[in-house]
């Protein structure tokens, strides 16, 4: 299938002066001819249209076919092509938006931000070294997973920030349970054009927030706002005008990775950056607890962000260490108990203890750490699960192997000889003395759906997508296939059994949040076509386990239309809803037309019917995880 790239406000290379330019529609055939003859004409310094103008300059560009993903073009030609076709800041819409105003920029600043970078001899020297690595040390053909022409193609291309912008409801009506709330989706959006390799996971975090009209003003338009999470890394690189801080998945591979590590060390020693202030991207997910909304990325501490309930503006308020009690990082998938309001989380890293468990009380106060030393090698532990009394940790075959760079490999990879296992720890444990491990060969999970207890607490049930092609999880995500399974652990006998629930490629699942850690019946998962693109949503009836495929409803968005993870919002206005009384919400992008919608689906209907649709004024790139914040939660945000 022909890949298309939607572009509008284009910017030049990160280290060059930023200027806008417009391009015309290029057909696939003409695009191929242009690739061979370099005919493309540029119109430089064209002004961006005002926010209210129709996006007549929004175009569709078809880059050279890359469906086979493997690129064979020379690296330097690839960079020129990338600068032409994959702009660091693209923004397609029916309404092209102006750049952020100075006043809104000032509102989004961190309380503590780095001093503006001053061009110096050490900085220039380090930049020259990085350029030499990109040119002479990197292989002439980049791996598909880090080739920007592949990674930043189609709707993965980054966009500019968008100030709060009204957008019309073009179909149906917004349900009452969503009134006054906000749907916020996190995802990677690099602020600078990569100078070398770039992995999807290494883009700067950007929040795309849609504030919905209140019940008192139902005729008002929803408001879309897209803002960067102003991490320390983002601010340092914004002031430097180029990507200068390390990226784990992109930059550290083989000899080139070792060389980049030396450049990073030089930047630290010369005061160009301070890793103690954080190196994370906050690009993965969000969580709301203790009156605060946090943007999360597991390589760093949470960042406090805020959505203004009146204007829809999104601001960053700082990196949060919870009074000095949280160190290094935190999972991007904490679990909030729907009954107690407590939040359970962990962190993992390359040095012992490789996993540390902890929790927060209802008010957001962090408890003591519980180091887990029974994890004997650094592993990629992205998600976990909790029941009413236990926490379940999956140790899978993706491992950290820093010495792999010496032999030409990556610091993170898969170990086919490792046996996956599940660790069970009492949820309120103060140490790991009661930790038990259960081997589950071939069971590798990146995300959990839910877990609960049965048989008076003697059995644990875990439902999660099992990644069948784990070796592709980081390198060739389009080849990844995940099948949902129900795993049953008998705590008395130690027996483990597994039941497949569907053979379809499903991941990025959600449930009714009120059932987290408790037995539930329904799960809603994204249909990979291929991953990480989501072509639709499938509803599984978990009670039908053992009877064949458990899919009871599904919706496919249509040809060329892809979304991300759905999010379930309960319809509990009356306080007596059933488990599947509610709505699924997500952003959908049409790669054929360039249109973007926010869709609301009825979770009870046989075909997950769309009951409301909002036409978005700007493109929302594919991303990772989102959250819905109710009107009451928005108003309760602490200043």
What does this structure look like?
The chain is an alpha+beta fold and 639 residues long. Helices cover 13% and strands 29% of the residues. It has nine helices and 37 strands. Strands 6, 32, 33, 34, 35 and 36 form a six-stranded antiparallel beta sheet that branches. Helix 4 runs antiparallel to helix 8 (254-269). It starts with a strand and ends with a helix.
Helix content: 10-25%
**Terminal CA distance:** 48 Å
Low-pLDDT windows of residues: 1-79, 85-117
Total strands: the figure is 37
Proportion in β-strands: 25-35%
The tally of helices reads 9
Biggest sheet details = 6 strands, antiparallel
Radius of gyration, in angstroms, nearest whole number = 24 Å
| Global structural class | alpha+beta
Shape call: globular
Mean pLDDT: 82
Could you outline the blueprint of secondary structure elements for this entry?
Elements (H helix, E strand, L loop, with lengths): L4 E3 L13 E2 L5 H10 L5 E2 L14 E3 L13 H11 L16 H6 L13 H17 L10 H4 L10 E5 L2 E4 L9 E7 L16 E7 L11 E6 L3 H9 L7 H4 L2 H16 L15 E5 L2 E5 L6 E5 L6 E6 L15 E2 L6 E6 L6 E6 L9 E3 L12 E2 L3 E6 L2 E3 L11 E3 L6 E6 L9 E4 L10 E5 L4 E9 L14 E9 L5 E5 L5 E5 L11 E7 L5 E8 L9 E6 L4 E3 L3 E4 L11 E9 L5 E7 L7 E6 L10 E4 L1 H5 L4
Antiparallel strand pairs: 1-4, 2-3, 5-9, 6-36, 7-8, 7-37, 8-9, 10-11, 11-12, 12-13, 14-15, 15-16, 16-17, 18-19, 19-22, 20-21, 22-23, 24-25, 25-26, 26-27, 28-29, 29-30, 30-31, 32-34, 33-34, 34-35, 35-36
Helix pairs in contact: 4-8
Family: Belongs to the carotenoid oxygenase family.
Protein name: Nine-cis-epoxycarotenoid dioxygenase8
Pfam family, one: RPE65
């Amino acid at each position: 299938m022909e890949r298309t790239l939607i572009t509008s406000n284009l910017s030049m290379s990160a280290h060059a002066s930023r200027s806008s330019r417009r391009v015309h529609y290029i057909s696939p055939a003409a695009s191929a001819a242009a690739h061979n003859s370099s005919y493309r004409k540029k119109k430089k310094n064209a002004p961006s249209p005002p926010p209210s103008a129709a996006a007549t300059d929004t175009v569709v560009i078809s880059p050279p076919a890359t469906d086979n993903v493997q690129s064979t073009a020379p690296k330097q030609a690839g960079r020129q092509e990338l600068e032409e076709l994959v702009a660091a800041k693209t923004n397609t819409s029916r309404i092209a938006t102006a750049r952020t105003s100075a006043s809104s920029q000032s509102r989004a600043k961190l309380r503590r931000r780095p001093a503006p970078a001053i061009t110096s001899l050490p900085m220039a020297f380090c930049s020259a070294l990085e350029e030499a690595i990109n040119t002479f040390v990197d292989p002439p053909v980049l791996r598909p997973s880090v080739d920007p022409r592949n990674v930043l193609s189609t709707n993965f291309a980054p966009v500019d920030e968008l100030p709060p912008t009204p957008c019309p409801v073009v179909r149906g009506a917004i349900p009452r349970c969503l009134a006054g709330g906000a749907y916020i989706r996190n995802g990677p959006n690099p602020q600078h054009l990569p100078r070398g390799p770039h992995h999807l996971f290494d883009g700067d975090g950007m929040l795309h927030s849609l504030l919905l009209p209140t019940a008192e003003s139902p005729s008002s338009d929803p408001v879309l706002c897209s803002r960067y999470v102003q991490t320390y890394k983002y601010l340092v690189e914004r002031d430097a005008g180029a990507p200068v801080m390390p990226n784990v998945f992109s930059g550290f591979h083989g000899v080139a990775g070792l060389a980049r590590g030396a450049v990073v060390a030089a930047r630290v020693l010369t005061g160009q950056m301070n890793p103690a202030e954080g190196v994370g991207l906050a690009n993965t997910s969000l969580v709301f607890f203790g009156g605060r909304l946090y943007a999360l990325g597991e390589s760093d501490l949470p960042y406090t962000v805020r959505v203004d309930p009146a204007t829809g503006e999104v601001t960053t308020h700082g990196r949060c260490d919870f009074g000095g009690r949280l160190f290094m990082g935190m999972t991007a998938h904490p679990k909030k108990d729907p009954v107690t309001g407590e939040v359970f989380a962990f962190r993992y890293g390359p040095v012992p203890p490789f996993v540390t468990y902890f929790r927060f009380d209802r008010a957001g106060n962090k408890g003591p750490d519980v180091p887990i030393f029974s994890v004997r090698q650094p592993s990629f532990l992205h998600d976990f699960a909790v029941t009413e009394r236990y926490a379940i940790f999956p140790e899978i075959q993706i491992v950290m192997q820093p010495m792999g760079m010496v032999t030409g490999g990556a610091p993170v990879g898969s170990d086919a000889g490792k046996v996956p296992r599940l660790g069970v720890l009492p949820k309120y444990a103060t140490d790991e003395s009661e930790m038990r491990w259960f081997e589950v060969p071939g069971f590798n999970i990146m995300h959990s759906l839910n877990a609960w207890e049965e048989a008076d607490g003697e059995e644990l049930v875990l439902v999660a997508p099992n990644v069948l092609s784990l070796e592709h999880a980081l390198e060739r995500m389009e080849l990844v296939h995940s099948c949902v399974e129900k795993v049953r652990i008998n705590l008395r006998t130690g027996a483990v059994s597994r039941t497949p629930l569907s053979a379809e490629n499903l991941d990025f699942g959600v449930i009714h949040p009120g059932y987290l850690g408790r037995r539930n019946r329904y799960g809603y998962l994204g249909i990979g076509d291929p991953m990480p693109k989501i072509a639709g949503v499938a509803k599984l009836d978990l009670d039908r386990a053992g009877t064949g495929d458990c899919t009871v409803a599904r919706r496919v968005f249509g040809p060329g239309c892809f979304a991300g993870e759905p999010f379930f919002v309960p319809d509990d206005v009356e306080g007596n809803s059933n488990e599947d009384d509610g709505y699924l919400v997500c952003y959908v992008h049409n790669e054929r037309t360039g249109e973007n919608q926010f869709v609301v689906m009825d979770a009870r209907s046989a075909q997950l019917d769309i009951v409301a649709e909002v036409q978005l004024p700007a493109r929302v790139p594919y991303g990772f995880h989102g959250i819905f914040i109710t009107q009451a939660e928005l108003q309760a945000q602490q200043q």
